[in-house]
């Protein structure tokens, strides 16, 4: 799997990485989801999941 698979939502009986009980290291998806929506509203159909992961990593760092 790729790092961007963390953004996939659960669909039907398929539970994704994002919602897996084994995913104890990732939190605060509400911020990533808000960033994804904002970027997609400005650049619809152009932004990839990898772009969202890169922006989240860059902007999520605490200095």
From TrEMBL:
All residue ranges annotated as the Plant heme peroxidase family profile domain in the record: 1-63
Any one biological process term the GO annotation gives: response to oxidative stress
Catalytic activity: 2 a phenolic donor + H2O2 = 2 a phenolic radical donor + 2 H2O
Domain of life: Eukaryota
Cofactor: Ca(2+); heme b
One matching Pfam family: peroxidase
Keywords, in A-Z order: Calcium, Heme, Iron, Metal-binding, Oxidoreductase, Peroxidase
Protein's UniProt keywords contain Calcium: yes
GO MF, one annotated term: metal ion binding
Family: Belongs to the peroxidase family.
Protein name in the entry: Plant heme peroxidase family profile domain-containing protein
Organism: Nymphaea colorata (pocket water lily)
